[in-house]
Amino acid sequence: MIKIDFLVVGAGFAGSIVAERLASAGRQVLIIDKRPHVAGNAYDEHDAHGVLVHRYGPHIFHTNAQRIVDYLSQFTEWRPYEHRVLAQVEGQLLPIPINRDTVNRLYGLNLDEAGVQAFFERVREPREPVRSSEDVVLNTVGRDLYEKFFKHYTRKQWGLDASELSAGVAARIPVRTNQDDRYFTDTFQVMPLHGYTRMFEHMLDHPNIRTELGVDFAAIRNKVKAGHIVYTGPIDAYYDYCYGKLPYRSLHFEHEHLPALAQYQPVGTVNYPNDHAYTRITEFKHLTGQAHAGTSIVREYPQAEGDPYYPIPRPENEALYKRYQALALQEPHVTFVGRLAQYRYYNMDQVAAAALKAADNILGVAQEVA
Q1: Where are the alpha helices (DSSP H) in the chain?
Q2: Which domain range does residue 153 map to?
Q3: How many domains does the chain have?
Q4: Domain assignment present for 199
Q5: Same domain, 22 and 131
Q6: How confident is the model at residue 285 (pLDDT cuts 50, 70, 90)?
Q7: In CA terms, which of 105, 187, 244, 321 is 20 to 30 Å from 340?
Q8: What is the number of other CB atoms lying within 10 angstroms of the CB of residue 323?
């Protein structure tokens, strides 16, 4: 039986941040991950052709939280990067989120900001109350834009109609009347200068942290005696699915290197709401700023089976999660944190914030006990 102060399950954002905070406070930490690498889904590496790629799809860092930037800046330098996305609709590549240029180019108009606002008011279908993602979009931009940009993309991404998803999913994507074509408008929009993996390696490079990769928690949970467990995996798996499986959406990634092309597409990501089985193509050199004679891209195919990536936001799923959460609240020596453990559709900065809060709470409790 191995004895350790803290066992952290998962070496992604949530687990690595908690591990670093605990280690820096003088605690002994064992962090494990069933994958052969750190950084979780943010893992990046140079492919066989020397292009830095994100193995599990694009990860774009953006936040308004100075505390998150200050914390992560201990482990990486940054490169400024503002993500832009185009959607292929009716033979055109149009800005998404929908903005003034999207409307003008799609409909052959020449509206100013006030004109675009009036256009939205004219075409919107008021919904009261707003319950679903379909309600959100129809209430904002009306049926034609909904069908061209959202309806089929949502079906591909989630395997559900927008009418079956909670309003919060569509609410993540704003609609603009100006020409701002940035996907995000956060104060800080940056990428780790040398990649995410390097940042995580620096974070976990601490004498109080032991990292073991290729280790499944289920295989060792009865072989390790930890004073406290920090668990970042799926909460239903921790409890052996006693109430049934929580629904997650998975992804299949098709990576491709194009040796004869310096640039494949004009922006980092192009969405395909109506064509093809994949939802989007990302070209990594836009994100990293890397100079290379060729380029590498990834196509994303959402699927039902596979590693869990996205909790599916529906009221019945939230109700099932609450049953697991009630079990978790009875475990004073286990902390559940992260997208899968908290069944939340978190951005990276939100995971980081949740992890820093969790570490503060654990250390507060530990100090009180001590």
Answers
A1: 13-24, 66-72, 100-107, 113-123, 133-145, 152-158, 167-171, 196-203, 217-220, 235-238, 284-288, 315-328, 348-369
A2: 98-171
A3: 3
A4: no
A5: no
A6: very high
A7: 187
A8: 14
